[in-house]
Fold these 2 entries.
Entry 1:
Amino acid sequence: MEDYATSDDDFHYSSDQEDSVDAYENDDQDYALLSSKGPTTQVITKESLLAAQREDLRRVMDMLSVKEQHARTLLIFHRWDVEKLFAVYVDKGISFLFAEAGVSVDEHRESDSVASAVMCLICMEDVPSNELTRMDCGHGFCNSCWIEHFIVKINEGQSKRIRCMAHKCNSICDEAVVRTLLSRQHPDMAEKYERFLLESYIEDNKRVKWCPSTPHCGNAIRVDEDELCEVECSCGVQFCFKCLSEAHSPCSCLMWELWAKKCRDESETVNWITVHTKPCPKCHKPVEKNGGCNLVSCICGQAFCWLCGGATGREHTWSSIAGHSCGRYKEQEKTAERAKRDLYRYMHYHNRYKAHTDSFKIESKLKETIQGKVAISEEKDSTLRDYSWVNNGLSRLFRSRRVLSYSYAFAFYMFGDELFKDEMTEAQREIKQNLFEDQQQQLEANVEKLSKILEEPFETFSDDKVMEIRMQIINLSTVIDKLCQKMYECIENDLLGSLHHGIHSIAPYKSKGIERASELSVCWGNNVNDTEMLLSEKDYCIYAASVGVTAELDRPSGSGSSDDSGCSSRKRARKEGLGGGFFDLNLPAEFVDRN
Amino acid sequence: MLDFARVQKELVECSKDAEGSGIKVSPKSDNLVLLIGTIPGPVGTPYEGGIFQIDITLPDGYPFEPPKMQFKTKVCLFSSDHCLSELVAVMVWIFVWHPNISSQSGAICLDILKDQWSPALTLKTALLSVQALLSAPQPDDPQDAVVAQQYLKDYQTFVNTARYWTESFAKESTRGIEDKVQKLVEMGFPEAQVRSVLEAVGGDENLALERLL
């Protein structure tokens, strides 16, 4: 840790205070540039779904000069992957592209007015030609048969690909025709059809996923680049885009799944019981041996042999029980030893995982205290006006606690037998484990330090003392940020990167916390600030729920500032003092709340 | 709901050239929901000479939903002294040994009966496809893994088994009407009644027995 602190010395301990803050912020900006180039995720709400879909449709329509319905058919076939669609177009040509997806653009609509009545090949009735509809592929059937067909297909969930009724005709039915025919007699089905078409943009799109919130907020998230990322929906839920569970880096998705299951399961308790107790042969209650020889007597009065669990008499010496002999001592001891070792190992990691989650919980209570302190400080007749560094430090603390707690779950699997037993030799594992644990410990030490300093009663200090604390917090924040970054890099490159059967990858480290998905541009007009507010409030709720406390929140009233609105908002945030810094990602609402 | 008018027309259409194709469809019940289709085993296959019966159930959505078809199974009632009240055992047999047809249930694995169904297809075209399936098994997409394995690994045994099944079971239904009458009369039913019932059900022995009971 010392290394980092000293290397930054010239930034932070030189010149006047204002400069050092700027240096710190610039530093942060660099990281932001490193980790993400602007927002790469977007929230798609019910209202913006249409716009989002239009965007892609427009590209295809412009490129291939086709009608909207054909563009949609093509895109649905290619799972809304515009790039892939264009690649097929370039490689195999337009006719292949169309045929593959079932698009017929040739106009087959010859006039049917010649014959007054035509036989529909489905119902085998003669129908007047004006009640017969031809699709783009040229096949015509009577309207009532078409309607019947559409209803069956829509109910089957096939809205996105309703094929022509003719045998072996791969054409997809013209959207407009489906719409007009259905809307006359079955408006409910028409509505269902529209909804399915619209939602296909989410369901069939690998870059878009529904937000996993329960109850569902109705939003979906679209990522522009890497699917492996963590994102925050405008409803406040933070999740891993890949596996849709809570954000869990630096754990891989598989590790997290296993860990969450392990923590949920009672298996460890059961394990403890099997290791430490034996059922009484009479009353079957689990009996724990609290010392003494191998003759155990249950609370029910039954005596039994601790080694084999069999009922015995009470006559015994230290080494043998009268009339009883059993020879299974060695074998049982071995399995018990092993289970015991596994249990202790799990407990080691789980305790630390839990400890960080718990201190996060306690530290969340710091907010009120700190706000009080800041308020007092601001009242003071002092030259210091800007206390945003307190909040920044606090959010850094929250974020790194989070990283730390998940890092224990990661270590449990990385260095355990469960996943990578054959990937590393004992020696390799030891080296890697040492490497990782060194970093983890450094991080942990700094996090605790930061935690301690943040609890100082700085409101009672003199200006000089406050400046000193401010400097320490800023320094520690930078160091912690770098350590987190390094730990992610180490995990990615040295630990997971060297695996042969590497299916494990982790979401990249975001210095500024989990990226909040921006509203799709169409919704910019809508009170962004309010959304943002609501969001951090819920975030707190979710966190609180996950650590098992009931969150009681005031309704948000102040204005937050959006994280992705860039420098201007940042400056504004600073001028407003505590009015929602740019570091508010993991903050409970109350922090941002204060105006 | 089921389009009765169309089913009626299909039946008429089908009976018109029953001679040519050998494919027949007849209603099993009055409501046109349950039908029986008959296809001759294709020439030059182990199924040649057999007459295969297929149970057809029309769903409500027919013709927009595919008809359900499966090879008819034969329920053999083993009774003592031809006394039907003392049933000893019930066995289910199916007449066809084919990779795409379950030897247990008679279920048919055919794309046009599933997702490739089109309302423009008819019972007759569907039965023709089933007949085509008999000529051209697709062991790579099997319904009956045991038969498919045999088809791929030991073709000769497959052919022999399929032929044996055809001989033993499917030809039975081609037996003369007199045989059937005699068999039913032996069971203790009056001959006149047997004849009229047999005629009513189109010579189907099992169906006749059901009615007589």
Entry 2:
Amino acid sequence: MNRVALLVSLMICLSSLAACETDLVDDPGFQLWCGEKLCSWELEEGEIRKVPTWHTHDYGVELVGAPVLLSQGAQRSAPCVRIEVTSKVEAGAMVTVEADADGDGEVDWTVPVDGSDRFVSQVQDVALDLSYEGVFYLLKSGQGEAVVARLRVSDECEW
Amino acid sequence: MGIAVDSVMHSKGLVMVTLLLGGVLAPSVAVAKEPFIEGQTWGLEVGLGLGWTEESSAYTRTLETFGFEDKYGCCWEPGAPRFRFSGAVERIVLPYFSVLLQTNLLDRRKWYRDSGLGEDDVFAWSSWTLDVHARAFLPVRKWFRVYAQFGVGPTFTGSRLYVQTTADGKQTKYREVDVGYNVAGLGGLELTSKHAGFFVQGGYIYSPSPKNRFGDAHQSGGGILLFGLSAHFGRPL
């Protein structure tokens, strides 16, 4: 009887954990640095730098020069995707968030990051059938200063 | 023309109110013949109370931009007054005048952010003042006085940021101290025996601290209302 109760408790616990988990990428705040590289994000092209933002120890990633391409595989599948970006991007730096929904090497949608001379946040929901093989990209293709403090990708869509 | 007439009427009204108040209050606020607390020169004050300050500021809006939220908890609503504390040492230097070294606890906040890495990021701060105040008081009786005081001094805001910055899964605590300034205008009344008493104090403190790296500040002061205990001792002037 005790074993059954334990099993039921474990199942409830696991199911509630799964229900609470909404993030689709690791380290949305670019906080984890392994030396000069981000631990959770892959630098595919260009140069990045760890920079302080509003607080000396709350970091962001500066995309230095152009082009710069960071990527990370999706943690799991999702029926839709919410993109939340906090950034300071000079006009002309042309920063975009992109996704390859099924990992076939083709970008399926692109969200441009707003230009601003101070940090601003933007939120966008995208209708997308994301597979667990999907890949998210942060791309900078123009010259100018671009610091991204947070790129949260979740399935907390409003539809 | 309409404005001028209106202004004159308003002035007359103020004069009438002042005369009326003067007539009613003058007998009761006459200066006591005996010196307040028999002329003792030292005092201690400890007060607890409530403070009203702005909920949203450039500082808190920046925190929101970076994903933080003020989680108010079960028993507190946005806009409700917050806890305040004060402590002071008073030295009476003239019959109706004293100087104080006073400290006030101003705003304390705790904000949270979903880190996406397990434990939430936490940012907490609390602001304290350390001011020199000049107090002018009127001893209505030798055991009762009303007063007004003005103070200036530094504000110290200690902050703690708990974030995970390494891949070992543990959060690191980063402490910082922001040093700003404050100005305070307070008034109160005190009812006391020779050595121990009770006071009520209220007023306003302007204290733009803490500030972040962008220069955004939070007004940690605001309106304040304190109830406290006082003690008096020392040789007469």
